[in-house]
Amino acid sequence: MARVYAGILGTLAMAAVLCRGVKDSGGVDGTLSIATLALVGFALLGSILGHIAQSTVDESVRLKIERELNAHAAAAEGKPPAAT
Questions:
Q1: CA 15, CA 41: separation in Å to the nearest integer?
Q2: What interhelical angle do 28-77 and 2-23 show, nearest 10?
Q3: Any idea what the Cα angle at residue 28 is, between residues 27 and 31, rounded to 5°?
Q4: CA distance 67 to 79
Q5: pLDDT by position in tens, the chain (length 84)
Q6: Which of 26, 69, 78, 81 has the fewest CB atoms below 10 angstroms from its CB?
C-alpha cells in the first residue's frame, strides 16, 4: 500500500507543479526542478502514509481474527465468550 500511495501522491504533485508552470509561463528548468522536488517529497510522504495505513489495516484484521478464534475456542469448551 505504501508504494501505491507514494506513486499516486508523487505523480499528482508533479502534475500539479507542471500545470502551474504552464499556466504561469514558468521557465522549463525551474519548473522541472520544482516538479522533481515535489515528486520526491510527496512520494516520501505517500510512502509514510501508506505504511501507516497498511499497519492500521493489518492490526484491525489481526484483532478481529483473534476475537473470533477466542470466541470459537470458548464455544467449543462450553464457556461463554470473553467480553472484549
A1: 13
A2: 150
A3: 80
A4: 15
A5: 889 999 999 999 999 999 999 999 889 999 999 999 999 999 999 999 999 999 999 999 999 999 999 999 888 887 766 665
A6: 78
Instruction: From residue 70, give the alpha-carbon distance in Å to each of 2, 47, 59.
Output: 31, 34, 16
DSSP 79: P
The full length of the chain comes to 84
Domain coordinates in residue numbering, the chain: 2-77
Nine-digit cell string for 40: 520526491
Helix (H, G, I), strand (E, B) or coil at 4: helix
Cell of 68: 473470533
